[in-house]
Design brief:
Layout: E1 20-29, E2 32-42, E3 47-51, H1 58-65, E4 73-77, E5 86-89, H2 103-108, H3 112-115, H4 123-135, H5 151-165, E6 169-173, H6 181-196, E7 200-204, H7 208-214, E8 217-221, E9 225-230, H8 231-234, H9 237-248
Parallel strand pairs: 3-7, 3-8, 5-6, 6-7
Antiparallel strand pairs: 1-2, 1-4, 8-9
Amino acid sequence: MTLPLPKTPAGRAAANVPAIRLEDLTLGYDRHPAVHHLSGLIAPGSLLAIVGPNGAGKSTLLRGLIGELKPLGGRIIGDLAVRGQFAYVPQKDGIDVSYPVSVFDLVAMGLWERRGLFKAFRRADTDAISHALALVGLSGFERRPVGTLSGGQLQRALFARVSLQDAPVILLDEPFSAIDNATVDDLMVLVRGWRDEGRTVVAVLHDLAVVRAHFPETLLLARQAIAWGATAEVLTQANMVRARGMTEAFDDRAPFCEVDHIVVRARGMTEAFDDRAPFCEVDHIGADGGHGHAPHGHEHGHSHGHDHSHNHSHSHAHDHAHHHSHDHSRDHSLAPQPSSPRSTPG
């Protein structure tokens, strides 16, 4: 049975929501791009779902938005890495629930930006924590160790922490994965409340029924944008088939992308060439310019606005290898993370 959740009060951050613009954004790990040439606008107050096949770069995009990953190319305008600009809920499997902390302490971490680590809680702080727990149906769970919570209960506690952070932008990475329908319904009440307050909510989701029912805008990602716009226009059968085909076409064994060998500055492309390199084996280059690598669905041809001067060795031509399909999302911390969480690449 769905709990009748009280409405979350509008906070200080809701009136100061930044727009987020992506301009030809490429993100990846160790120069292996996982998200390619993504451009678009996340307007203030958006309720945006990011969907796509496994390995499509969805979680990578979130970590780029919060500043955990620096762009390999392009840029993000509207830097969320500024203190207090975002709240972030990672995937549940990236949270170490063995950390000895109570539900009360986990939720209280949402006040860390305003209170600091060592200041004593005031009565108003305690009341705010109790209210946040009531919002998610966890009143009476204050002293429970987080390691004893079910998956749905843990997600409720993390949403309570977000409500205390009072951030203008909220990023959720698979928030409804492996939890019951009643919990999804309850947490969607909070999500809609945040949107109604004018906050921006961006969520990586797999359940397309939830997306169609609650999210008016969707980005369908398959290492690059397949479609971005109104949900009904994005989630078509043709787009979904294309997204699956795009991710399957990538070759994770291909060489990495030598982004820093590509010269795009005003001093010109000639500086990218190495006159000592061996001659160009033209007959080793495929007729389509693909340098013999298996096709990977890059329909844009990697023009980048320049001609990919590749040091004449052709060791990384056009393939933009997509190693590192894993998410690097290990949070390990139920420690405070209202600002950019620290993840260690796995």
